[in-house]
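Much of our argument rests on the idea that a fold can be written as discrete symbols. Part of our work consisted of pairing the sequence of a single chain with a tokenised description of its backbone. The amino acid sequence and the backbone structure tokens for this protein are reproduced below.
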Amino acid sequence: MTELNTLDTPTLLVDYQKLLMNINQTATFVKEQGIALRPHIKTHKSVKIAQMQLKAGAVGVTTAKISEAEVMAAGGIDDILIAYPISSPAKINRLVKLLQQGVQLKVSVDNTESLSYLQRGIERTPYTLEVWIKVNSGLNRCGVEPGLEVVRLAKEIMSHSKLKLGGIFTHAGHSYAAGSKAEIEAIGLQEGQAVVESANLCEQAGINIPVRSVGSTPTYQIAGKVPGITEIRPGNAVFFDAIQVGLGVANIESCALSLLATVVGVYQNRIIVDTGSKALCLDKGAHGNQTVNGFGHIIGHPEVLIERLSEEHGVGVLIGETQLKLNDVVQIIPNHACTVVNQFEEYVVHQNGLVKDVWKVAARGMIK
């Protein structure tokens, strides 16, 4: 078997045992809570990994874009939530094609105008489209405000012959801006309550809400315990990354994704690795919160801080003595796994320092 340190670089790596551990951790949580798991694939963009999650008990997957859903459907995955607003006729035509393939499709809605577009786009077909109401639980991105606005939209959905209300969901992405675990805890509780309280009001109005779904990796173990929540949708939890470590959500040993890099320059006060912004990306946090120092964590070399990136160069300043030399190979845990994965065509899967397999990043670049 091939040893990792003999591979050319940069190479995207997945530690097989850590991947399994992370998948099983999430699966165990939902089993203990008696709820469902619908992981977001925007992190791994891999049919293979999605299939592993389904085998571990996931009921389906979540995607950000239709193109990601199309890739998952082509890979045999037939229960998909597209957690993104859709109203353009071109995109609705693509939804119809997924329905024609037998996909159990759900799409996000948060306004009455989009309902009209969806109704018109499928009213001449034999299909009914399941829609989920997106609730704003504090991120202030998409979503209707919790409570009566949800009830009003739910009633409007019921008046459309080709639309079926399947659930209410939210994403507490603002948890990435939290300054403490206590703040993450408060956001997670608010996330779950925004969904449950909205669903309860709908049911008081005679509108059944089968699914009450919450999402973010930092909060899923909090919001997922709120009574009435039926589903979680974490994405990053499959790998974790340096931002999650910075938030206190994971430890560095849990991070399954890394980049294999080579030292291409050694100077008096710095080293250069062959992973610049086109590989590591420029994330240092999310929503205004810088949770990490530098642009990636070099495993086993705390004396090197990746201080800056140009397109093809990672500049690591020395904050202690190092034994690294020209052509040495290192592994770097990225700050943000999701964006880094989208830069690569394939994963090299490894176990105990040896190459186990190569998996395609099947939904790479799928942004439409």
About this structure: The longest strand covers residues 257-266. DSSP finds eleven helices and 19 strands in the chain.
